[in-house]
Amino acid sequence: MNATLESRELNATDRCDACGAQAYVRVVLESTGGELLFCAHHARKNEQKLRPLAATWQDETERIGS
To answer: Which residue intervals define the domain DUF7455 in the entry (predicted)?
Structure first.
């Protein structure tokens, strides 16, 4: 996996794969290395199912409202 990609800060052009809102969470899947981007709402909604499958879980939700 590309460590640079995983650690890159999410920005306004990164959009939630579920709804298109700004993404604050990046999930890199262990099995494929593919990535999923989520807004805070959809990250929370899918976290229980995705955490066991994730190689990395980059959570930048603390940036919301700043």
So the answer is: 10-64
